[in-house]
């Protein structure tokens, strides 16, 4: 069996960690008897600086035939962040209906959480962020620029279909885990869309009597993440709230350098895109010290999506072993290994 994967290393450390992801996935492919065929696309802020576009006009058509997209990170000083986001990531996420942004948050053995007295048994959650609509819409505009009457309007979009599908996905994942779903809301302050979100959550919960639920306003929910991370199993949130929680989660789990993520079209009608939570880290780019674990774990999520669950488990187990032993870990985890040495150590265990 051959999986055809589009690879977009992007900018900064994206170019350094992505080859380590490929290295480990190739080792997994050899061991579990499948092939991975990569096609690399050099779409990045560097490309933007040369051509004025993050990807060619027919970029989406070029990606369409692939089973998945494996992305490093995009963003670089000098190119405004909204260019890399709206010129590449958001068109891919939206046009390919990658309506789930999935971010597992787990404190691995051997990693110290910044939260006092918390161990791996306390931090193990799955953040499910709505990825296609909500607060991140391009509907709106500005009027009377440069005058005292200047105004900006930004529309949020919440559809029944959009809420239901992300919530259903969250409940389905919870059925495979500890059967608990928490909803992030703000229905006290945002009086149209968030009560609607709550209604849809209650309606979905009614179909899953085996699953316990909780819901919190986003403000107190962020406090609970810090004070009671053990309360959470699956957490579902709108595009904005999910975005915030899915950076807070990895922060309490020790290092952004290990946090994986996926933009998923569950029906597999379109390619899904797998990218670590971290960005291009210009502060450490080019030094060969970036932690490749997030990219490699992201690769394990991709293997799961491609229907290779045994290979996915083997990759995660290899990561756990290397991180727990602490021999071949990068600086952010207190070690001295280079990006490549960390990747090679994980690949060798597979
Ligand atoms: N999906 C994406 O491509 C994505 C996501 C977030 C940020 N960005 C972009 O990346 C650029 C930098 O953003 P930022 O600095 O806010 O976030 P960042 O994640 O790039 O870096 C934040 C901090 O974490 C450290 N870090 C990140 N990944 C690491 C790794 N693998 N190993 C060790 N340390 C790591 C960095 O050195 C930095 O100190 C911006 O242009 C931003 O738009 C892109």
Comma- or semicolon-separated keywords:
350 residues, two-stranded antiparallel ribbon, alpha/beta, binds nicotinamide-adenine-dinucleotide, 10-stranded mixed beta sheet
Model description:
- The protein is α/β, with parallel strands linked by helices and 350 residues long.
- The strands form two sheets. Strands 2-1-3-12-11-4-5-10-8-9 form a ten-stranded mixed β-sheet, sandwiched between helices. A two-stranded antiparallel ribbon has the order 6-7.
- It contains eleven helices and twelve strands.
- Helices cover 41% and strands 19% of the residues.
- The structure holds nicotinamide-adenine-dinucleotide.
- The site of nicotinamide-adenine-dinucleotide has 21 residues, from loops.
- Nicotinamide-adenine-dinucleotide binds next to loops.
Helix and strand content put the structural class at: alpha/beta
Mean pLDDT: 96
| Low-pLDDT sequence parts | none
Shape type: globular
The N- and C-terminal alpha carbons lie at a distance of 19 Å
Strand order of the largest sheet: 2-1-3-12-11-4-5-10-8-9
Number of helices: 11
Order of helices and strands: EHEHHEHEEEEHEHEHEHEEHHH
**Strand portion, in percent?**
15-25%
Radius of gyration from the alpha-carbon trace, in angstroms:
20 Å
The amount of helix comes to: 40-55%
Strand tally: 12
Largest sheet: 10 strands, mixed
Bound ligands, named by name, code or SMILES: nicotinamide-adenine-dinucleotide
């Amino acid at each position: 069996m051959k999986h055809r994967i589009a690879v977009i290393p992007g900018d900064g450390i994206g170019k350094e960690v992505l080859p380590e992801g490929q290295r480990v996935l190739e080792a997994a492919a050899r061991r579990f008897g499948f092939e991975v065929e990569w096609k690399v696309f050099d779409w990045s802020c560097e490309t933007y600086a040369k051509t004025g576009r993050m990807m060619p006009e027919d970029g989406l058509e070029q990606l369409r035939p692939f089973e998945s997209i494996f992305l490093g990170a995009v963003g670089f000083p000098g190119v405004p962040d909204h260019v890399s986001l709206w010129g590449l990531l958001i068109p891919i996420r939206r046009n390919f209906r990658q309506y789930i942004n999935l971010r597992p948050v787990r404190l691995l053995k051997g990693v110290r959480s910044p939260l006092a007295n918390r161990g791996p048994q306390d931090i193990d959650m799955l953040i499910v962020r709505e990825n296609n609509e909500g607060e991140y819409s391009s509907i709106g505009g500005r009027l009377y620029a440069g005058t005292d009457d200047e105004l900006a309007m930004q529309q949020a979009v919440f559809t029944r279909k959009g809420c239901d599908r992300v919530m259903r996905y969250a409940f389905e994942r919870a059925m495979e885990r500890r059967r608990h779903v928490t909803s992030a809301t703000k229905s006290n302050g945002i009086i149209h869309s968030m009560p609607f979100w709550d209604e849809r959550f209650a309606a979905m919960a009614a179909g899953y009597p085996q699953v316990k639920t909780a819901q919190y306003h986003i403000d107190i929910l962020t406090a609970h993440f810090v004070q009671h991370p053990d309360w959470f199993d699956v957490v579902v949130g709108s595009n904005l709230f999910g975005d915030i929680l899915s950076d807070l989660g990895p922060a309490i789990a020790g290092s952004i350098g290990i946090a994986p993520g996926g933009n998923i079209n569950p029906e597999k009608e379109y390619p899904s895109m797998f990218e670590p939570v971290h960005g291009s880290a210009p502060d450490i780019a080019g030094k060969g010290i970036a932690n490749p674990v997030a990219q490699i774990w992201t690769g394990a999520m991709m293997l799961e999506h491609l229907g290779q669950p045994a290979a996915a488990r083997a990759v995660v187990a290899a990561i756990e072993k290397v991180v727990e032993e602490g021999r071949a870990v990068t600086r952010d985890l207190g070690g001295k290994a280079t990006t490549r040495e960390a990747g090679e150590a994980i690949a060798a265990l597979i």
